Amino acid sequence: MIIREILTIKGGDIFAIKPDQLVSEAVAVMVEHDVGSLIVRQDGTMVGLLTERDVLRGLNVRGCALIAVKVSEMMVTEPIIGNPDDTVDYVRGVMTENRISHLPVMEGETLLGVISFHDVARACLNAADFENRLLKRYIKHWPE
């Protein structure tokens, strides 16, 4: 399975925020849409990524004052990017090795979506389930 297939199944919703908005606004958007990351866009171009982990790190450093901090001060400015033709196995390795939970997927200069580690895990489980069913069917019909 490739990442393009995950995006097709998941849908292309991209939740974004501007870099000059407050972290409190970003948290509200994440909660409202039940997502763990936001693309940070300036004039329609991705300039960063803000994740739950970034917010937690900021909370650890700044405490409650974090809510008045701008997103631009917390975001990752050069997130690791995936390609729609990357395999699920490759992306799982990249996400695990780099300890990231969200991966923007770009095709050229176009942002296609964001996949989470949960999306990747679900795809892997579905693939394993499919393979198990095929193997069981094959064994069941084994010629004697």
UniProtKB/TrEMBL annotation:
The keyword DNA-binding does not apply. Residues 8-66, 75-130 form the CBS domain. InterPro entries: CBS_dom, CBS_dom_sf, CBSX3_CBS_dom, Diverse_CBS-Domain. Keywords: CBS domain. The keyword Amino-acid biosynthesis does not apply. This is CBS domain-containing protein.
